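haha ok so turns out i had the wrong file open the whole time. this is the CORRECT one, sorry everyone. sequence first:
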Amino acid sequence: MTYPPSGIIAYLDASALVKRYVVEAGSSWVATLCDPSAANTIATARITKVEAAAAFASKRRSGDLPKASYLKVLQDLAYDFMHQYLLVEVDTALVDLAVELTKRHKLRGYDAVQLASALTLDRLLSQARADRVVFIAADKALLEAAQEEGMNTDNPDRYS
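then structure:
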């Protein structure tokens, strides 16, 4: 993938989405990807909000994120979840797919749900003959599982 492309459907798991709000390796790439002028569709599971909030709270407790910055990223996250992201809802079929993914791949629970969410969205879009989803994560094992499931992937950590 080029740095980053325009007009794509990008599914970001929590490890990638957090980079939009706090400075880490790959943050500039994610910020460019999420910039509305890039005309990308940014998708994620609704539960990603919880994962991201937990990551921010951890950074706050460790002293890596000052209180004012912590409150700002939570506010920005809530706004973006309401106004910018295409949200994948977790339902019974998605949970069942996540369980199946844990049988095929060494995945943590939330990672299996993230991958199941991206696969579900990708399948819905392919049925509508729309563009394929690019699964974006900063987790090599999760990206390998996504590739084995036939997804296009990218890792923002490659663009430090």
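The chain is about 55% helix and 10% strand.
again sry for the mixup
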